Amino acid sequence: MREYPIVVREIGGKHRLGVEEAAEFDADLREVVAEGYSRIDVEDCEDGEQVGTVVASETAPEVETVRWRD
């Protein structure tokens, strides 16, 4: 399994969620990010703070599971 961190980044003065190293992961991660916005108050997070992890298959570009911080 491969793991990709879900991180809050400050972009243009606003906090945004993103999946690090997503360029090498050939799957649609929009649903993961949308779920993150419903779970995490990104405005309360620091720039660079990890709020979750996408766990993906080694052999296929698909999400196995998403782990969110408590």
Tell me what you see in this structure.
The structure is a single chain. The protein is 14% helix and 41% strand. The protein is mainly β and 70 residues long. The chain has a 4-stranded antiparallel β-sheet with strand order 2-1-3-4, with helices on one face. Strand 1 (2-11) and strand 2 (14-19) form a beta hairpin. The radius of gyration is 12 Å and the shape is globular.
Instruction: Write out the strand line-up for the largest beta sheet, numbering strands in chain order.
Output: 2-1-3-4
Distance between the termini: 22 Å
The secondary-structure element order is EEHEE
Largest sheet: 4 strands, antiparallel
Give a count of the beta strands, DSSP E runs of length 2 or more.
Answer: 4
Strand content bin: 35-45%
As a percent range, the share of helical residues equals 10-25%
| DSSP summary: helix tally | 1
What's the layout of helices and strands?
Elements: E1 2-11, E2 14-19, H1 30-39, E3 50-56, E4 63-68
What is this structure, in a nutshell?
With 70 residues, the protein is mainly beta. It is 14% helix and 41% strand.
Provide tags for this entry.
70 residues, mainly beta, 4-stranded antiparallel β-sheet, 4 strands
